[in-house]
Amino acid sequence: MTSKKSLKEEVFREFLQNPSLGPTEMTKQIDAKYNSVKAAFAKLAEEGFLERPSRGTYAPNIAGILLDLMNRVEKLEEQAK
Question: Which SS3 state, helix, strand or coil, does residue 33 take?
């Protein structure tokens, strides 16, 4: 079974491995269109996974990531009951 990752997920995973990458560098890294990568960064920031301390600069939002993981674990535990 093959699961194709969305561009947003690919950007997020790559960013977590190398947080120094901005949208321009990420575009080259994953061979994607700049506007699509920029939109993925914006969506990740909007969803609370990334912080945007200054224009063009992103950082992982550790608290947001952990809260999302905790919520996912709780849902899985509820489903397992």
Answer: coil
CATH number at residue 73: 1.10.10
1 inside domain: no
DSSP for residue 31: T
Residues 27-69: pLDDT tens digits? 999 999 999 999 999 999 999 999 998 887 899 999 999 999 9
CA distance 8 to 31: 13
Tokens standing for residue 81: 């009951």
Closest CA to 64 of 77, 50, 78: 50
Distance CA 46, CA 52 (A): 10
Tens-place pLDDT, residues 2-17: 467 899 999 999 999 9
71 within a domain of the structure (yes/no): yes
pTM of the model: 0.83
